[in-house]
Automatic annotation (TrEMBL):
Domain HTH iclR-type: 79-146
BP GO terms, sorted: negative regulation of DNA-templated transcription
SMART domains: HTH_ICLR (SM00346)
Coiled coil (UniProt feature): none
Residue span, IclR-ED domain: 147-327
Protein name: IclR family transcriptional regulator
GO function terms (MF aspect): DNA binding; DNA-binding transcription factor activity
Pfam families in alphabetical order: HTH_IclR (PF09339), IclR_C (PF01614)
Superkingdom, natural source: Bacteria
SUPFAM superfamilies in UniProt: GAF domain-like, Winged helix' DNA-binding domain
Entry's transmembrane regions: none
Keywords: DNA-binding, Transcription, Transcription regulation
């Protein structure tokens, strides 16, 4: 029997090491150990074809592993068309400032993406038909469409309501008063959610919009506006007949806004509820911008000090909700003034 040469032994050892390393690599990629290397290598011949579709080698191997063991939730190969459309939407999103107000032309988009102008033009027309982009009839430039913003707004509101629910329930339980989550829409305040107290009679405010000047939450929703803008709003807003006297004056409004900025909440007379007072506090998003307000209708008579205690609780709930939405806390507590300073 012929003895193997040193070169043959070395080659055999190298092959065993190579197979062991390949096995470890496949195990890392999620390939079961029962699969033979020959089976994997046979399937890997499709990698060259899959590369044209944007799939990676690991994706192809994983796909066939799922096929071998009979599982149904196979990883999906990314859609090239969808990916190209998303790239266009990313370009149209621009910088998010005034530079993008006029939109972008087809040639500029194609050049930015390194694609054919005709291909980009066809994709934009398809997106326009779905409302995902819109084209200015004069400049012929494209920008993000109404449907995209509508979907984003619905998603934002859904998450806002979901995250805010326990905070509103906590306030309604603690003080046995109606609690509301409101947002600003133009010069109107829209109620997204309400949590009732134990009272038998309740007005339905969910989905109802009221003039900003007549809503208790209005003070908190526009707390970041400058005083001149508030004066102009009070000057030009026309309210329904007979309700002019129900709205606080300019100086009262400015005082309420100053209190929100310094203490984190406002206590004011409620114009649209049969209540003794209204308490509200602003809710901020991850950027620190006011995105909503928590409001409560206080139906029971309280001293001024007690109202500000309730206001501090509402302000703290709004602050905690803001943190839940991604706002980095600044460490400042919600302040409740002493009775002597009221």
């Amino acid at each position: 029997m012929a003895m193997p040469t040193t070169r043959a032994c070395s080659a055999a050892a190298s092959e065993r090491v190579s197979q062991r390393e390949t096995t470890y690599s496949l195990k890392f990629m999620g390939v079961p150990a029962s699969f033979t290397l020959a089976w994997v290598r046979k399937r890997m011949r499709l990698v060259a074809v899959s590369a044209k579709l944007g799939a990676t080698s690991a994706t192809v191997v994983q796909w066939f592993c799922y096929e071998r063991i009979g599982m149904t939730d196979k990883p999906t190969v990314p859609s090239a068309g969808l990916r190209r459309d998303m790239e266009i939407l990313e370009v149209l999103a621009g910088h998010g400032d005034g530079r993008d107000a006029d939109g972008f032309g087809v040639s500029w988009i194609a050049q930015r993406l390194g694609r054919e102008k005709s291909q980009v033009s066809r994709a934009l027309r398809a997106l326009e038909l779905e409302g995902m982009v819109e084209r200015d009839p004069i400049t012929r430039r494209y920008r993000l469409g109404w449907r995209l913003f509508a979907l984003a707004a619905r998603t934002q509101h859904a998450r806002l309501v979901q995250v805010a629910a326990p905070y509103l329930r906590g306030l309604a339980t603690a003080f046995d008063e109606d609690a509301y989550l409101c947002v600003l829409r133009g010069n109107l305040v829209l109620t997204l959610m309400s949590v009732p107290s134990s009272r038998v009679y309740h007005r339905v405010w969910e989905g109802v919009s009221v003039p900003l000047l007549m809503a208790a939450a209005g003070r908190s929703l526009v707390a970041d506006w400058d005083d001149q803008r508030i004066r102009e709003l009070l000057r030009v807003t026309t309210l329904p007949s007979g309700l002019d006297s129900a709205v606080s004056g300019t100086e009262e409004w400015l005082a309420d806004l100053a209190h929100v900025r310094s203490c984190g909440y406002a206590v004011t007379e409620v114009e649209l509820e049969d209540s003794k007072a209204g308490v509200s506090a602003p809710v901020r998003d991850h950027r620190g911008l006011i995105t909503a307000a928590i409001s409560m209708s206080v139906t029971r008579a309280h001293t001024a000090a007690r109202l500000h205690e309730i206001g501090a609780a509402v302000g703290e709930a709004a602050r905690q909700l803001s943190i839940s939405l991604g706002l980095v806390p600044d460490g400042r507590p919600i302040m409740s003034p002493t009775e002597g300073s009221l």
